[in-house]
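Re: the 300-residue chain
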Amino acid sequence: MCDLLIFGDAGEQKEVGFLLFMPNSGNRFVNEDKAMIRLDNMANYLMSRSLSPGQIKVYGYTAIVANDIESTDLSRDRALYVINELQKRGLGGDLFAEPIACGAVDLWDSNTDEGDRSLNRRVRVLVDDAILTSAELQAVGTGKKNPGEGNFQIVIQDKTAIKKTGSKFPWWIIPLALIGLAVIAAIIFFAYRRWRGLTGVMVQETIPPKSKKVPVFIPVAVVPPGGKTYVLTEEEIRRYAYELYQLRYGQNVNEVEDWHQSVHELTAYYEAKGYRVVLYWETLTKVTDTYYTQESEQAA
């Protein structure tokens, strides 16, 4: 079952995200700060969906090592820890199925050295996209846990059926709302520049190599005096994007998506530490702050 979810057809399940754990630990992540950001993002995504009881599946894994720790118990502890963290962020406990302990595996890399083993110490969060019928919802309320019990079954409704019932969310509203927000943001921005008397300098955004995205233009960053400003360099973004590629074991290559995910998570990480983040392609109009890069942060 665990092998099938990695390399085979996972049926109607969709992976939301994963986290890596420290050796022999069921409650310590490899990078605590980044793990907290990923948990926040996963919780926000899951809460944005209309989920039914038991629709979230959490799988725990361990590396293959020779020690006295029971790998199945450790993988279950890791899955339970992630479920608890997601519940702290507002998800109801009934949305989760029983944690699935897969034990020791070599699915993402071999276990010949520590670098390889670290990729197998993970917990994956998936969502079962099957839509429960009213009969099953009633059965869940009576305490029946297995779909084979009672006279009900899970039915995956097609899109036409959903449309006829009128339960489909009107997604066309979202583009209109985004356009409206963009217009309001533009009005506020230009009003602010006129009030400050700033000259309109525009710079071209740097797009990562191999990207087919058309370059766009963004306004310069206006940094008020005082405080700490962290410059997020191109090299740091590339390294983080490559880490995301490695963590997926080279599967589902999407350079542009990795690039933008790296910018989002690194920006959130440094803002949480109290920095005002400036991307490397932005031109500053005021040079009055103390600027930091990854090298100066490590030296400190």
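The beta strands are 13-20, 56-62, 100-104, 122-128, 202-204, 217-219, 228-232, 276-279, 290-292.
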